[in-house]
Amino acid sequence: MMANLPADILVELEQAVATCPPDRCARILSGIVQLLTGSGNRPQELLAGVIDSVLLRLTERVEAKALVQLSTALAELKVAPPETLHRLASHDDPDVACPVLLKSQAVSATDLATIAASCGERHQRAIAARNSIEPEVTEALIKRGGPICLALINNPGTQFSEAAYAALIARADPDGEIAKALVLRPGTPDLVVRKLLSQKAPAPKAPAKANASTIPPAQHVAPVPPKLPCPADYASARPEIVALSRVGKLNDSTVNRFTIRGETANLFTALSVLSGAPIEIVERVMTDDDCEGLVMACRAARLNWATTLAILSNRSGARLSFVERERAQQIFETLLLSTSQWTVRWGEIAASANPSDPGHRGTKMGVNR
Question: Which of 183, 221, 241, 244 has the highest count of CB atoms within 10 angstroms of its CB?
Fold first, then answer.
């Protein structure tokens, strides 16, 4: 019936709205919402378009409580009055705007991006919690900075463009939450992970007055062995690592997180659980000058090359040289998984048979060949 109203009747309705008391407007608004939400098979597009201007008038005449109810109702509709929806979504009161910003499928990505560029914090959080967030909306929110970036990364429905990833990398402190969250997020491109990891441990700068030609090369790249965890650290780390392994979450992303955060006990324990090597073997290959044993342990743990490179790059204070990196990658790519796991298994047997001889264990691992 409403969809067939002549234009002059619609004008009369608008005029009546303009002069009636606010409580009467609220009742009219409630009736229209019931008409929209209970329209059944009636064409909602036509119905929403016809009553849009009336709703706009009503929203100017009612209190915030009625607007919150209207926003909550319209947010559930796949088709809603467009101008009214836009007014509600951009409303200064977050109680009015947030239901639409959070749930409405009828708000366009363009409108959301425009609102995201200037809205308040609660508005931003509502948009960042949507089930699906288009790339242009993501980019607009990232420009606002702050905690909203983490909310976007932690939302599985967020879609990231190359520009969005670039903006996040620019904002990411190597030891900060953004870098950690991006590395842990499933689906983060390997290139993004490598860029984040490359921000870790920048190459040391030579003193201004030092003469490089008089300094032995070893002084420039002297590795700093990681501080080995104590037994109590391993005892604390192992339950969490085993639990992650049982639910299938002890993977490249998790190991990358341990690497970035410098969580040595978690990292060593994870390598031990994934590869089958005892902790003593993991400690040895992590502190060995040669990278072969560590690459083999990572290969046996089914880690990918990006994760292996991150571990190699962060186990001491010096970056890998180009030659060292090329050699490590060649070892990684040519090692068979079965060979790595077999060698690691023999290392475990050697460790059990002769725990007082770390050199013997290293030989069995194939570290010093």
Answer: 183
